[in-house]
Amino acid sequence: MPSGLNLSQYHMGPLVNHNCNAHSKFFVINSENNTLKNTSPILIHKSIVASVGETKSVKKLNNGSLLIEVINSKQAENIQKLNKIGNIEVTVTPHRTLNYSKGVISESEFQRDLEEDLLDCLKDQKVISVRRITIKKNGQNFPTKHLILTFNTPVLPKSVKIAYINCNVKHYIPNPLRCFKCQRFGHTLTACRSKQNCARCSLPDHDSNNCSSTTPKCYNCTGEYPAYFKSCPRYKHEKEI
């Protein structure tokens, strides 16, 4: 991320997408009822090699699906035609995230430009979406110079060129997920199976809107501040992971 940029202060603008066929390298092979989970690796390997040749890697996931990394565009084309492993019917789809990368550019010259116009300048550099980061002040959102770029390649480029300006690309590091129910990191409220803990005082069975405590306490590190305090050592640790 750009030096000194605290994403907790910022808001993401609407996603601007541009349909573009990426050269995918990672594919997922699924079978109905997870039949592949109990299928012999020898049979799986023979079927894949017969279809596309030796791939870079094959990994069986916990749910029984197969994660395939291909070597070149010809293999990428052929793997998507695979519809059977042995007598098991399968479907092949590009992996949802591994074929893409996200980076941030920070250039004040483009602070007044629309995301659509920026995307039009970047589409021949493997950029498929642009989102501007905004900051909220006094209830209003203001645009910043920071732009999140999504590339249709797993390898993040070092720079991009917009008009006559070269912009350095830094890795996009999102803020850690903190559950608004239990206050732990790593999942969201909708996926939470734990009990309610207060974000302000860390005690159970109520939320911060109904908290009467005058002494804040972080649930994650027991510090004298609420769980959403951005200088919490646990938050900083999660940010670095």
TrEMBL record:
InterPro entries in alphabetical order: Znf_CCHC, Znf_CCHC_sf
GO terms, molecular function: nucleic acid binding; zinc ion binding
Occurrences of domain CCHC-type (ranges): 178-194, 197-213
Name the UniProt record assigns to this protein: CCHC-type domain-containing protein
Species, as recorded: Araneus ventricosus
Lineage, opening ranks: Eukaryota, Metazoa, Ecdysozoa, Arthropoda, Chelicerata
